[in-house]
């Protein structure tokens, strides 16, 4: 029988240190149920910060009534502040905030946050940056979208340099800017961005799981047992480089006539893609477990985008047990060892991408080995670890602000 212990016997050092709760203001112009990588990953981070005992104030544009109904009742564990919003050009299902500096100054004057984190660089994000600096609050930000790289796809090439100048000005006013890969950190540093911190992205490997594969779903796509199904998940838009998917499909179909192509997502290129590949399956926009089942039904995932800062669909496909063919860029370039847990083509080398897809389609044993290794890689991308790194950047910004204020207080008056 173990001896009883008195309270005096307990060693204080054996007890975990209490977690210091912070008041965090998170500003984003997109959030679920909107479907995109920024919205999804920000929701994960907010959940993680909340679990780590922080008080999160979420500031975002009010969504259309249709999406608001999908979102359901406001979260009880997060203080949500809804602002006015306007449709984003070319992205009608998304909203951007409007200038709101005065309202944010009032809000944060009454309830001062320890740090402001800005996820998007639109009008609401710019207002948040100005308000935070007006109140001498520490500010961190995310670099999540390569807006400047979209120019050539939307005939906005002349605006590429001004856009990059704005982004550099925005982020260099922040105490730290989080980027998802080391490659992105180096690229932005070369363009004059300062105080960059690499904070990757996680993936929900319980939701995105090969076990969700459905023979009935594959049959609905016209695929018999043993038929190869290739697919793409994401926005159907020019910046996603989807002509390469069609080229790869045509090359594969020449050797495997029963191969099927599935597009999951929606966007302005849907009609053009359907005209060019009328036999392809267009599954539309999917979410949650339904989206996970669509991934799991694919044998080969094609992702030709060169405009991503990360590309969450890459890790979702890997977690789903898909063999991925992608360019050596963003998440794929960071996580995939070509021929081991996926296949990579040189960035922008479209002929190599097509040849790689044709090779992957023709070697079923190699494809299965790659898919198994991809799943193992994805299972290590835990959102808890990502949230801890995110929290570390916030704490660093707070500590530097506190030190600066202390030093300023110690300086003798003039």
TrEMBL record:
Signal peptide: none annotated. Residues 35-207 form the Glycosyltransferase subfamily 4-like N-terminal domain. Keywords: Hydrolase. GO terms for molecular function: glycosyltransferase activity; hydrolase activity. InterPro entries: Glyco_trans_4-like_N, Glycosyltransferase_grp1. It comes from the Bacteria. Transmembrane segments: none annotated. CDD domains: GT4-like (cd03814). It holds the Pfam family Glyco_trans_1_4. This is Glycoside hydrolase. The lineage of its organism: Bacteria, Pseudomonadati, Pseudomonadota, Betaproteobacteria, Burkholderiales.
């Amino acid at each position: 029988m173990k001896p009883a212990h008195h309270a005096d016997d307990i060693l204080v050092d054996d007890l975990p240190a209490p977690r210091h709760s912070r008041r965090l203001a998170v500003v984003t112009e997109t959030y679920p149920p909107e479907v995109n990588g920024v919205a999804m990953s920000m929701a994960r981070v907010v959940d993680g910060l909340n679990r780590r005992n922080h008080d999160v104030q979420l500031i975002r544009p009010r969504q259309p009534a249709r999406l608001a109904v999908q979102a359901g009742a406001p979260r009880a564990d997060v203080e949500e502040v809804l602002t006015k919003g306007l449709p984003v050009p070319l992205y009608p299902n998304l909203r951007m905030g409007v200038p709101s500096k005065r309202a944010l100054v009032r809000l944060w004057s009454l309830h001062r946050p320890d740090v402001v984190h800005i996820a998007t660089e639109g009008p609401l994000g710019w207002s948040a940056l100005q308000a935070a600096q007006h109140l001498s609050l520490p500010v961190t930000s995310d670099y999540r979208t390569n807006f400047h790289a979209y120019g050539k796809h939307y005939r906005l090439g002349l605006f590429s340099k001004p856009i990059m100048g704005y982004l550099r000005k925005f982020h260099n006013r922040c105490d730290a800017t989080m980027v998802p890969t080391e490659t992105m950190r180096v690229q932005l540093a070369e363009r004059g961005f300062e105080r960059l911190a690499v904070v990757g992205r996680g993936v929900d490997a319980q939701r995105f799981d090969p076990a969700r594969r459905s023979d009935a779903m594959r049959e609905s796509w016209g695929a018999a047992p043993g038929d190869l199904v290739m697919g793409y998940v994401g926005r159907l838009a020019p910046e996603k480089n989807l002509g390469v998917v069609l080229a790869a499909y045509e090359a594969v179909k020449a050797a495997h006539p029963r191969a099927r192509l599935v597009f999951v997502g929606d966007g302005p290129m849907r009609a053009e893609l359907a005209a060019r590949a009328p036999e392809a399956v267009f599954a539309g926009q999917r979410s949650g477990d339904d989206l996970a089942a669509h991934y799991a039904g694919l044998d080969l995932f094609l992702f030709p985008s060169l405009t991503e800062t990360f590309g969450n669909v890459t890790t979702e496909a890997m977690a789903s047990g898909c063999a991925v063919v992608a360019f050596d860029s963003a998440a794929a370039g960071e996580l995939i060892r070509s021929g081991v847990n996926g296949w990579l083509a040189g960035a922008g080398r479209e002929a190599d991408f097509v040849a790689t897809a044709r090779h992957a389609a023709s070697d079923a044993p190699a494809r299965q080995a790659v898919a198994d290794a991809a799943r193992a890689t994805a299972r290590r991308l835990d959102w808890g670890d990502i949230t801890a790194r995110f929290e570390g950047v916030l704490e660093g910004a707070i500590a530097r602000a506190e030190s600066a204020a202390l030093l300023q207080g110690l300086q003798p008056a003039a």
